[in-house]
Hints:
Layout (H helix, E strand, L loop, with lengths): L2 H14 L7 E4 L3 H16 L5 E4 L2 H9 L15 E4 L3 E2 L5 E2 L6 H9 L4 E6 L13 E5 L4 H9 L4 E4 L15 E6 L6 H9 L4 E4 L1 E2 L6 E4 L5 E4 L1
Helix pairs in contact: 1-2
This protein binds ribulose-5-phosphate.
Amino acid sequence: MTDQNAAKRAVAYAAADLVQDGMRLGLGSGSTFLFVLERLAQRMKSEKLRIAGVPTSGGTAAAAQKHGIPLLSMVEVDWLDMAIDGADEIDPNKNMIKGGGAALTREKIVAAAAREMVVIVDESKFVPVLGEKFRLPVEVLTFGWRQTERAIADTGCAPSLRRTASDDPLITDNGNYVLDCKFDGITDPKRLHDQLNAIPGVLDNGLFVGMAGRVIVGSPDGRVRVLP
Ligand code: 5RP
């Protein structure tokens, strides 16, 4: 296992160990989150832990099913005890960019329904300012996407349509496109979040502002620290 995977597994296991019997969970997406499923499945066997979770992507739903983790849909729940999810970038105020896996809209709905969003990251995800390196994903309707793209560009970025390995436009689980937007740093994430979401055709953007609860950070040597 690489050092980065060791860090991912360590933070994922630490988050999964916060889960208590009977909890209803938001199940995040991404390579770090997959280790959470592994640990939850272990605890279901060894401790008879009873849980159920709402998956934030088709990929997570399939992986959870493989591990025998019971799934719920959003319409079956009023709220969730805890959401656990990764991030692409996180700043000193615990604001984040998410959506590297194109699941940002469902991830945000699920996190907003949870009493706490526990974030799991390795040290490499920490940045002083969001958006200097990682391009901000924005989910847009396919109808009129070029007009939406132009309006997004007017907020001060260079958007590009996300494509699959076979060069087709990537279609999200919601049937939409993702525009990856290059900013030269996002100094006011809340303002940009609201500005982008006011553009016709934008479903949501990957800025998660003021949503993170505890942040579990992993080092390559497998040590973890928790930011309250
Ligand atoms: C998916 C996400 C992921 O949480 C984010 O991309 C982090 O993924 P990874 O753990 O693979 O680095 O937002 O939409």
